[in-house]
Automatic annotation (TrEMBL):
GO molecular function, one term: hydrolase activity
SUPFAM superfamilies for the chain: alpha/beta-Hydrolases
Origin organism lineage: Bacteria, Pseudomonadati, Bacteroidota, Flavobacteriia, Flavobacteriales
Pfam families: UPF0227
This protein's UniProt keywords: Hydrolase
Protein name: YqiA/YcfP family alpha/beta fold hydrolase
Organism: Flavobacterium frigidarium
Gene3D superfamilies: alpha/beta hydrolase
Source organism superkingdom: Bacteria
């Protein structure tokens, strides 16, 4: 299994989270500069279209990119606090696609997130309905914007068990 992990705006995949993900498969975690590349989703699609990506996992800005990339690549996705309703003033083009999501998407939202407000994210997600796939939405009352290893591990485990 190959997992494509998309980090947030100014973050990287931590060694502890990489080690956890590697128990499920090979991990690709490209270093991305969303500010310098307003076409990051298209860039990622072109870079990985000939590889067998089985799962996309993204956090924050990586969750935003992962949401649309999973649609383009027809791949299941697990997204943590995705920057769907707004992108922190970072311009990112959303590629046109007539495809619908055809694989499971699990979105984890932190009720205490002050960077990407849960209410804004939920409103944006519900505006995208109806989905043609399984959409799981988890709202964690204690979660802020950063994803602690314990929550990351729990949500990863739930996601893979549900596939």
């Amino acid at each position: 299994m190959t997992i494509l992990y998309l980090h947030g705006l100014e973050s990287k995949l931590s060694p502890e989270k990489r080690e956890l993900l590697e128990t499920y498969g090979a991990v690709l975690a490209p270093d991305m500069d969303y500010k310098a590349n307003p076409n990051m989703i298209t860039t990622l699609q072109q870079e990985y279209k000939n590889q067998n990506i089985d799962i996309i996992i993204g956090s924050s800005m990586g969750g935003f990119a992962g949401f649309y990339l999973s649609k383009l690549m027809q791949t299941p996705a697990l997204l943590f606090n995705p920057a769907l309703p707004y992108r922190l003033n970072i311009a990112q083009a959303i590629p046109e696609s007539k495809l619908e999501h055809s694989n499971a998407i699990h979105i984890v939202i932190g009720a205490q997130d002050k960077v990407i407000k849960a209410s804004d994210n939920i409103a944006h997600i519900t505006a995208l309905l109806p989905f043609t796939t399984d959409l799981r939405l988890s709202i964690l009352k204690e979660l802020e914007h950063g994803i602690p290893l314990t929550i990351f591990e729990k949500e990863i485990d739930l996601f893979f068990k549900a596939l």
